[in-house]
Write a structure and sequence with these properties.
197 residues, 6 helices, 5 strands
Length: 197
């Protein structure tokens, strides 16, 4: 009988401690959510999206350098992520009016030009992140700003190894330090993590 009562008391204590722990965990994100102003986040994301789109269009000529507009989102406990798809591989279009296959020279020239454009794109986006990233007011200093670039149709067209995605990522604190002139653009380029595959 006493063992049964002790067992019931033990179960009751366990249930109460689990319930209290889950309520404590649930309360923390709610306070974080309350501190965020999602209407401001939406406006800031839209401005940054526009800056990225304009930068790509100004730096790259040719048909459809950017395919669709840049899309951004805010991820709680991570930061802001922006996605865009670009067409940096420019080559003569094979059409019913010109059925000649691409020559080896055309393919090599198109590939080399694309690789130069990729470097220009990375430099441009690093500058955009440094100059406009700190304007994302709702990001905390430890939050990330990431720009994910998808390269359109590269694997099908280019006959050389080349990336299909480029990801640029940095903490907001690094971008804010650059904006406050604590270091130059070349140092910012070293501090931004770039992954391409």
């Amino acid at each position: 009988m006493i063992q049964r009562k002790l067992g019931v008391v033990f179960l009751l204590i366990c249930c109460l401690s689990v319930s209290a722990a889950s309520q404590a965990r649930g309360a923390e994100p709610a306070s974080v959510h309350e501190a965020l102003d999602y209407s401001v986040i939406k406006k800031d994301l839209a401005v940054f999206q526009g800056v990225v789109d304009t930068t790509v269009r100004q730096n790259f000529q040719g048909p459809f350098p950017i395919l669709g507009s840049t899309k951004g989102t805010y991820l709680l406990e991570y930061g802001a992520v922006f996605n865009l798809e670009v067409n940096l591989y420019q080559i003569r279009v094979i059409s019913p009016f010109d059925l000649r296959p691409h020559t080896e020279k055309e393919l090599n020239d198109a590939y080399n030009s694309m690789m130069k454009r990729i470097e220009t794109l990375k430099e441009s986006l690093i500058k955009v992140m440094g100059e406009h990233g700190p304007s994302l007011k709702q990001l905390k200093p430890d939050d990330n700003l990431a720009v994910v670039v998808h390269l359109f149709n590269v694997e099908n067209e280019a006959r050389h190894p080349c990336p299909s995605q480029i990801i640029l990522k940095a903490k907001k604190s690094i971008l804010s330090d650059y904006r406050e002139n604590k270091f130059p653009l070349r140092e910012l380029a070293k501090k931004i993590e770039i992954t391409q595959f």
